[in-house]
Amino acid sequence: MVGLTLVALPVFLLGWLIVYPILSAVLETVFPAGENGARALSLASYRFFFSDPYSLANLQVTLWTTLVCGVLLILVGLPIALYLRFSQGRFAAYVQAMAIFPMFVPSIILSYALIRTIGPNGTVDLILNALGLPKLPTPYLTPWGPVIGLVWDNLPLTVLMLTAGLGQISNASVEAARDVGAGPFRVFLAVILPRMANSLLVTASFAVLGIFSAFTLPYVLGPAAPEMMGPFMDRTFSDNNDPLNALTQAVISFGFCLVFGLFYVRSIARNQEGRP
Amino acid sequence: MARLTIKGVSKSFGTGFAVNDVSLDVEDGELVCLLGPSGSGKSTLLRMIGGFERPSAGEILIDAKDVTRLPPERRPTGMVFQSHALWTHWNVFDNIAFGLRLRRRPRAEIRERVEQALAMVGLADYGQRMTTQLSGGQQQRVALARSLVLEPKILLLDEPFASLDQHLRERLREEVKDIQSRLGITTLFVTHGQDEALALADRIVVMRDGVMEQVAPPDVIYRAPRTEFVASFIGSMNFIRVTVEEGIGRHEDLTLPVPVADGPAVLGIRPEALSLTPSERPRAGRVHRSIDFGTHKLVDIDLLDGTRMKAMMPPETQVPRGLRVELGVSAFHVFRDGAQVYQAGARGSETERRVSHA
């Protein structure tokens, strides 16, 4: 009874703020209100989304950004996490502090900081100019702008989760592998990687969920067209005053996130089963 | 089969030394136990031999080849860890086969050698089991097989039975001793259990605060400890403070011939070297309790100055609580400033008991 009381409030909030809006959005898009206010089954808004080249381009750029960010986050975060896991001393503490720092920077501040850094006439341009080097094409207002921002923004969580996953691998099991003749790379491939597959999956799921539904960074740093789903939904709702299509975009976005979420849930369930 | 030479090896962490100027020769096929309390540097020394710690000074040679700067994967050593350190994502066979696969041995040879190793540790049919399905003792056997299958020149065991219960520990250490004798493999065994060291070792290295206190065969360590620390760490030892005057060590309950310079000294007496006789003397020691171990009785005696002595008696001895007793001593050690300065009473030669009356 005490347990149920403890979970009652979170379950209520989950139902009220998450489950109800989802069901409501699905129902409103599948049974849209007609001109006379009557509701009838219609998949017209979905048909429009999947036949509209602009909507599809937005979905495509969102998936591309998510995939590229996910890969980059693992590629950047894993070496940092490995270093933090197997290193000691003051320098490792500094690296950890630097890796976690972006967590404390609001997205909007980060966005404008990146504009001043990698944008036109930003710090990078100024340095290149001072060195007598030619200008580089700026990633600002290209799909790479949000990618850089989102990787920077999601790196702390990725590093923290990967470090936690690596924490489950004992020093002794790594040393035992070296003892039987495995070099560092082989230890990573044969001992570390298989045993952190789960945490990689969970990390990737978390990162992907956050990136797919990102708003501020793609809005400020990304191109006007095609745009990621977050800004696209906002513009459809506010600028175009088209709540039905905005809701449809939201349901489709939720559908994709649900697939990534299922990876996470499956991984958690497998962890629970594996416990003695 | 190999000879291990450690020359002046030290390891410092910050300002302190975990291991300080240790030199040791381990002969071909010898089993040497590194024994000492926590923090004595025994595991650090073993890890330096295995290549997991880099010495701050000194050299480590295996068969006269300097391996001091080689990483673990390039040393001809095999280590068994206290925590088993098995790879839980593989089954028993794959755990043992990993080292052979790294050496690119043919598949048939790998199968044959893994099966031989499993048979050697008594787990012939366990190859396909996951390591998480094994008991602690079985896991430690797999860890041992994983090291042995590679036929290392030096086998290093870092408190391998510490997490096992007493019965299993005793059984496994006998098995390890048998396997080690059969293969004739040079072995270093770290333990903080004196019974383990006494049962297994050809020689024991007693360590304290990063230095070697004594290196000797188990019987010598037990019967001729060079320092007060070794005497107290190996087996049970009664210590009693005496004052030496003109070659006689005096205590209210004991007077013994101690041919050393005058001054305070500490007598070390093993429980089996003490005998008890009933006494009418009012200031004589009093029996506090008697514990029957089946093979013998251990009797605690409280002396008037607060010293508690332990005496090992035959199991049939009746010593009721509160009984006043006089102490007899058949052998003893004399320590001054922590070092032994005199030893008396070889086995069987009873030192005359003299009781001092106030």
TrEMBL record, chain B:
ATP-binding recorded as keyword: yes
Molecular functions per Gene Ontology: ATP binding; ATP hydrolysis activity; transmembrane transporter activity
A Gene Ontology term for the protein's cellular component: ATP-binding cassette (ABC) transporter complex
InterPro entries: AAA+_ATPase (IPR003593), ABC_SmlMolc_Importer (IPR050093), ABC_transporter-like_ATP-bd (IPR003439), ABC_transporter-like_CS (IPR017871), Mo/tungstate-bd_C_term_dom (IPR008995), NA-bd_OB-fold (IPR012340), P-loop_NTPase (IPR027417), Transp-assoc_OB_typ2 (IPR013611)
Location of the ABC transporter domain: 4-234
GO biological process, one term: quaternary ammonium group transport
Keywords: ATP-binding, Nucleotide-binding, Transport
Record keyword Lipid biosynthesis present: no
Family: Belongs to the ABC transporter superfamily.
Name of this chain's protein: ABC transporter
Species annotation: Xaviernesmea rhizosphaerae
Lineage of the organism: Bacteria, Pseudomonadati, Pseudomonadota, Alphaproteobacteria, Hyphomicrobiales
